[in-house]
Description:
The protein has 792 residues and is of the alpha+beta class. It is 39% helix and 24% strand. The chain contains 23 helices and 29 strands. Strands 18-22-23-19-24-25-26 form a 7-stranded antiparallel sheet. The chain starts with a strand and ends in an 11-residue tail after the last helix. 40% of the residues are buried. The structure holds a DNA duplex (11 and 13 nucleotides).
Amino acid sequence: xxxxxxxxxxxxxxxxxxxxxxxxxxxxxxxxxxxxxxxxxxxxxxxxxxxxxxxxxxxxxxxxxxxxxxxxxxxxxxxxxxxxxxxxxxxxxxxxxxxxxxxxxxxxxxxxxxxxxxxxxxxxxxxxxxxxxxxxxxxxxxxxxxxxxxxxxxxxxxxxxxxxxxxxxxxxxxxxxxxxxxxxxxxxxxxxxxxxxxxxxxxxxxxxxxxxxxxxxxxxxxxxxxxxxxxxxxxxxxxxxxxxxxxxxxxxxxxxxxxxxxxxxxxxxxxxxxxxxxxxxxxxxxxxxxxxxxxxxxxxxxxxxxxxxxxxxxxxxxxxxxxxxxxxxxxxxxxxxxxxxxxxxxxxxxxxxxxxxxxxxxxxxxxxxxxxxxxxxxxxxxxxxxxxxxxxxxxxxxxxxxxxxxxxxxxxxxxxxxxxxxxxxxxxxxxxxxxxxxxxxxxxxxxxxxxxxxxxxxxxxxxxxxxxxxxxxxxxxxxxxxxxxxxxxxxxxxxxxxxxxxxxxxxxxxxxxxxxxxxxxxxxxxxxxxxxxxxxxxxxxxxxxxxxxxxxxxxxxxxxxxxxxxxxxxxxxxxxxxxxxxxxxxxxxxxxxxxxxxxxxxxxxxxxxxxxxxxxxxxxxxxxxxxxxxxxxxxxxxxxxxxxxxxxxxxxxxxxxxxxxxxxxxxxxxxxxxxxxxxxxxxxxxxxxxxxxxxxxxxxxxxxxxxxxxxxxxxxxxxxxxxxxxxxxxxxxxxxxxxxxxxxxxxxxxxxxxxxxxxxxxxxxxxxxxxxxxxxxxxxxxxxxxxxxxxx
DNA sequence: GATAGCCGGGG
DNA sequence: GTGTACGGCTATC
Length: 792
């Protein structure tokens, strides 16, 4: 019996029935979740014949393949853009591939085995053209209550709200680090997209309405699985759940001898290995660990949940001492209540983090064409690679192998020159116009057709990378440029549509746009990524060389044709002096430049700035027309600088940029130094805050904040990883780190003025003053330097 | 300054 | 599961 269903793919895997792999597609529509089966797809890989394909085919068929080979087709394929006859070897079961490929590679006349390591379900999604999280119409056949796929058509339509559950566990740890063989899980907290909040536990907790007390750890875990099953969640999220929570749950489940059906179709929680890292799999759902995702997207000093949440969501969250959680449990009463609240808070903020990142990863999953579960674990290089693989097969391109051993080592050690950075004109510069190239690296790849298949090495002229012996044929568009062009084009279309839409639609489009941007910007890095299947150092090197040529060419046009002074530039940008009365030059210059740029390479006008202060390459500050300061590479926004140093730096920059008065800035510095010497400062101004990221014991080098934390502990204060330690540096003969005193115990007479002057104030402003010709001595003591006059 | 080795998050 | 991370920081020469 045939019928049609609609749904969105959440996850996919396969089961084995009668020796054959049957794909299971886990889908959701507005009515709920369901599974579609497909037994019509067989695993295969390729062998490249070194001589007559038919003869090699016969040799394989007559060799000892233990009946695993179903058939061998001779196919006309391409490898790096060149025609290549390949033998497609179809086998019965995915696990036959590793068993048989070694034997076939030893058959006479077999040059190479290709596409042997592409996991069955991922290959299935590519070959069937199925994209996760997009609307699909599926023609299915009902066989004894199971729906088998006959045909699939993609359609339009917005993804229904995914059901998301954020999960966190607390563990009994009387010895500090919990041992899964002995120490039970004491709480499981859950917060879901539908607003359900629960803390499951097995001892009495008072005053927390979300708490549900079960009889035992075992009952608690089973209740957890039941809640996930009942809520029919598509996505389970957590923080470091791949490495901690789920492996721990898995161990306890084994120990207790129970079954924990967290997955759809009653599938057990599985913990396997992805590289050296564990990975927890919940079949039929996506398990998304937000810890690696946050690490990929934001640069922070520490990724403990508390600081991540403060940084990204502005939520200040108390951390309990992880070492002593067991005591909260044992003590009961208010302490246990605190533990339960802490557990719930962890699940809540994890859900909030998921709301921030999941839409982007859903887009990436659809575009790249692999499951959300997999895409959530991919680096940008892997995202590009799976995108390329999806395009390769329908184009008849064979997928190259990943490098191993010596090949990888050779690639990894290869280096080449990167972007061009112009030495800045140091000091204060008036009236600056900033220009930058739009998506320079992707534009170069597309415009110069940079691809492994178009690369010509040595003795070539046309479309040659500047200063290198590499040219790129323009006869046929390369595989990578073609895909990248489509991506860039789609991004342009999405941006256009964004401009015309609002509200939820616009927000959705912004994630699509961001996903396309991430992918487009990763292509250059991909070609130079040593593990890439389509790696080609010469290509990455050429992209960088073209970029250097373009930015230098633009600088030359500015200087020679327009008589403009270029004061700075980095990779794809240039900073030019344009006085207010000659502003029309900016547009003229832009037009002149873009006339001369090939393909899609385009310079854009970024903005006018009243003034700039250039210190060194990558360290400068600008004052915009509307009075905003833009500071690069100079900022001591980090909290491990005393506020007085940060404030002084900021004020110095402000005076230099707004008033262009170095003497006034120098006077300010001397005043601050004087204030420090006379102790006319507040404790707040001199307190340095540093986060304790781990246990005191596990610090190898003794840093000041660790010493301060030790002193806190000695005086009976609770100290936990994730805590922000505030301290001042006191006088004395010991090394600086030993002189850290927790601010709680400090008074103004304790601090060491010379430390604050020499190690805080002066380093923060020294580089800035050096750029305008002032020395440290001049600032500190007022000793005049003869070199000064030439700067003013 | 190069290079080898370690470590992250979680309780 | 058709498989086996990675990038940044510190220590040490």
